[in-house]
Fold Bile acid:sodium symporter.
Amino acid sequence: MFSKLKDPFLLLILVFAGIGYLLPVSGASAVVLGWVTKAAIFILFLGYGARLSGAEAWAGLKHWRLHCTILACTFVLFPLIGVGLLHLPWYGTELALGLAFLTLVPSTVQSSITFTSMAGGNVAGAIVSATASNLLGVVLTPLLVMAILPTTGAAPIGWGAFLAVMVQLLLPFVLGQCSRPWTAEFMTRHRARLKWLDQGVICLVVYAAFADFRVTGVRVGAGEFAVMLALCLVILAFMLLLTDQLAKWLRFPRDDRVAIVFCGTKKSLATGVPMATVLFAGQPVGLIVFPLMVFHMLQLVACSIIAQHWASRTDT
């Protein structure tokens, strides 16, 4: 069971988080690292845009009930939970921001599709919904952050941060889409190799975040960590149960229900960390994305078990 749940990318993220915390950079090196990180994020979203074909983006849009349900789970139900998390007294300000922020980021793409496929669900619907979540998230997540997080008085997110997201995330994605007449064949031919480039960029961003975590001298106590872990588990369990019951209540068939559960409960580390780096510039980004990292690990483990269980029931 453990060998099936291991994720090399997840292990790499943990390694780079540890290196960033143990071997941080400061001074001029930190400035250089900041600019390199911004350039890497630009390249990451340029690649996302160049790889997404128009056919993939529009293939399943006719199944609007499925996509609206998944997007509502991601950008309505989750943020409502985030509003409540801001007012709990059991942890510090940055962890409160991090817990609320994880509820605002888009769904994952690869793992949502993988788990839907494993469980025998609607893979085409999962592809369209997960992709739409990430496309819309580039705009919706900053707007949700501006609408919800300033109420704490600790995250002065304004239109400047929103514009920064548009320049660093949406602009390269659009440029990547425009480059497809010249780059589509290359992207398709080297898709497997480019995956390593994507993961390398995410690891660099994680390193920079946790290096900043160490330099700023912020600490997480054992009690705060235990509360955060418990809350992440409760949020994940609640959303898994809620999405399943919601899909049954709306009378979706079994394959669509699988897609709703696996796409509507995920939160993307690959998209969330770069967004946090831009939105929370000048703040302890490492501590803010820490709950998202914990939630990401928990969702991979839980959904792996659920997908294998549903797959075995389908085989039977």
